[in-house]
Every structure is written in C-alpha cells, then in structure tokens.
Amino acid sequence: MFDSLKKELSRRALLHKAGYGFMGLGVTGVVGHIIKPVRTFAQAPSKEPSLPPEKKLGWAVVGLGKFATEQIMPSFAECKRSKLVALVSGDRPKAEKYAQQYGIDPKNIYNYQNYDSIRNNPEVDVIYIILPNGMHAEYSIRGAQAGKHIMCEKPMANTVEECQAMINAANKANRKLMIAYRAQYEPYNLATIQLAQSGKIGKLKSITSDHGRTLNPKDPADIWRMQKKLAGGGSLYDIGIYSLQAARYVTGEEPVAISAMMYSTPGDPRFREVEENVNFVLQFPSGVLANCTSSYGYSNTKRIQVFGSDAVLELDPATDYYKHRLVIKDKNGNQEQKIEEKNQFALEMDHLSESIMQNKQPKTPGEEGLQDVRLMQLIYEAARTGKTIKV
Ligand code: NDP
C-alpha cells in the first residue's frame, strides 16, 4: 500500500538535490500533482519565479531567550534565504555576547525602548518576535509600523482582538505576517498530512493528539508561563496548541463543534493563574472526531495518531525538534516510514523570506494564528460551561 509513497519520497529526494521544492514534502507544486490536499494552506503555487541564487534577507531576532538562542539563532546557518543581522534585547551584555558569536555589528543591537528606530536600518527586512506571548501583539505591530515583515512565534497573541490588530497593522504597512508554525514545514508532519488526505490509510475516522510536559517553576522560561498576562493561557496556549494544529492540518478541515474539560491540581502554586490540563474533542465536517489533550502535568509527550478505515498512522514524537518517528499499522503489521530529517526552523524562515521575495502569502499567515486563538477561546468556553459549542 505504501510503495507509491516510498517512490514519491525518493523522487523528492532527487528533486531536492536538483533544487526543486526546498520546503520538503507535501508543499510544492510537484507534490500537488500526486496528492491533492483538501485545504489551501497545505499548498504553494506550482510555478514560482526563480530567485537570485545568493540573495538572503536580513533578519532581526527580538527576545534572546531559550528558544531563540538554542534553536532559532543557530538555524540561520542552515538557511538559504535568511541571515541574522540584528538583535533586540533588554539585556545589553547578553546581546553583545551573541552579536560577537554570530558576527553581528554592535550598531545592530536594539533594546525595547529604541526598537522602533529599526525602521532606519536597511539591513533588516524581517523581524522575528520570540517574546512571551503577551508581548507578541505589541512588538509585531510596532515592527510592521517600522516597515518590516514579521515572523511571530505561536501562539500568535493572547486574544482574538490582538490577532486582528496585528493582521491590520501588517496589511496597512503592506508587509507580510507569518506565524511560526514549524510543524507545517517539517517533513514528517507533511508526510502525515499527505498520507491522511490522500486516502492512503483509508477513510479518516478519528485523530488523537497529545502534547504535554511538566512545567518547571525554577526555569526562567517557565516563570512567565505561569502568569496569565504574559502567557495568555496555560498548557493549551503553550503546547496544547500543537494538538489543535495537528487535528486541523491532518484533516485539512475546520472544526464545527467543540467540547472540553479542564482540570488543575488544587493548591498547586504553578496553576494559580493558568490551567494545567485541558482535554478537548473536535468534530470536523467530514465526521472525523479528534481527541486532544494538553498538559503541564504529564511527562514530555508530543504525538499524533490518525485512525483510518484501512490503517492507523502514528507519529511519535510528532512535533519535536528532531528524531520524529512515523509508523503505519495495517493488516500487514507495522511499517516504519523513514524520511530525511530537515531543519524545520530553517525551512520555515526561508519560507517567509521566499514569500517576501516572490510577494506571495506565506503558508501560515496571521489568519492561521488568529483561527487557533479563536478556537482556543472556544475550548475554554466549552470547558467552563460544560456545553458542546457549535463553531
Ligand atoms: P524565554 O523566557 O526563554 O525567552 C523570552 C525572552 O523574552 C527573554 O529571554 C527576554 O529576552 C524577553 N523578554 C522581554 N520581556 C520579558 C518578560 N517580561 N519576561 C520574560 N521574558 C521577557 O521563553 P521561550 O524562548 O521559551 O519562549 C519565547 C516564545 O517562543 C514564546 O512565545 C513561546 O511560545 C515560543 N516558543 C516556541 C517554540 C516552538 O517550538 N515554536 C518553542 C519554545 C518557545 P531578553 O533578555 O533578550 O530581553
């Protein structure tokens, strides 16, 4: 049953070597001929103007925290279209240390007060917001008003209104706005989408997706995550969003009904302001039901299971940084699908740079981030009221 996928994967490896389809599986026009995804955001235009081979856009990273310094900044080395040229930080000595490490001119170091003057720096084309969630809206809007394109980390913002204001600001400034949904650029997740939407595992019936980890109150990166104003929500906003995303991108559909339950351990000081666990069920128009969990209490888990009438697909880990594992279970037993790992951060950054160079809408624009924030608010409402909410 999966021979055609294997052939397609090896064909793509050749296409990649030949310089086609830089984003990997399932998103190029070449792939679009093989399997037709249901929703438009899984596709890119098939014919794109060719780009000058050496051109790279200049990027500024805002907020030099754990994710920025450990994952994003090192990944520029693997980018073809993006280079790190500026830093924005509230900690000057830290910024100087990284500027030296990455060969960034100290004149390109900004702080949160003089951030707006980045408008006068022609070396900076794109600003990447990697701040606590509650700061995403302000710094994205100020960045767009400074005439720069914006990449913003997930979740897009705390509220639907903030998301809309970000979209409006980018539109008004005629700049691109992309939400950094790295899984939608990662080869194993793209293969999962393709398998699920092509009928390769039969008719889709159900999806489960679980994303959780234990919140560590001693980790500086987790301190703001316990504060509602900076985090927007609890585990759902931080990692449950991956379960929600998975259900949406695997089906290629938008949910029509939501039910949910929420529980936080009583007396646990980590959960005074934000929730620990949320379990939610999404119903999709095709009849697929997705059971999703989100937790700040259970041990590190990032997995997706897709149940079709002919086979079951398991991706575990599904949304890790590296070392994904995809297994198809059918009447012939378990078959592991090996796909070449790629740096998903480099892929997503280059996707935005290419979208800017080609003046096309990125695959995960602000509207995609807004939809998740809207749905997460409905999940909270369903949990609070105990009612199934029609979307
Ligand atoms: P960190 O706390 O490690 O980094 C946040 C940085 O923001 C800080 O280091 C600091 O940088 C700056 N900052 C400015 N004001 C504040 C404030 N009041 N409190 C705390 N920090 C502040 O967080 P993470 O790197 O883990 O997360 C940052 C963002 O990235 C979040 O939106 C998160 O959801 C997202 N993320 C995404 C991941 C993904 O896989 N896509 C994975 C992990 C996080 P400075 O000192 O330079 O000013």
Oligomer: single chain
Strand order of the largest sheet: 14-13-12-11-7-10-9-8-15
Per CATH, the class of the largest domain reads Alpha Beta
* CATH topology term of the largest domain: Dihydrodipicolinate Reductase, domain 2
Features:
alpha/beta, binds NADPH dihydro-nicotinamide-adenine-dinucleotide phosphate, nine-stranded mixed β-sheet, six-stranded parallel β-sheet, single chain, 2 domains, 15 strands, 391 residues, Dihydrodipicolinate Reductase, domain 2, Rossmann fold
Question: What would you say this structure looks like, in words?
Answer:
By secondary structure, the chain is an alpha/beta fold. It has 2 domains: 145 residues, 3-Layer(aba) Sandwich (Rossmann fold), CATH 3.40.50.720; 170 residues, 2-Layer Sandwich (Dihydrodipicolinate Reductase, domain 2), CATH 3.30.360. The chain contains 12 helices and 15 strands. The strands form 2 sheets. A 9-stranded mixed β-sheet has the order 14-13-12-11-7-10-9-8-15. Helix 6 links the parallel strand 5 and strand 6. The radius of gyration is 21 Å and the shape is globular. It binds NADPH dihydro-nicotinamide-adenine-dinucleotide phosphate.
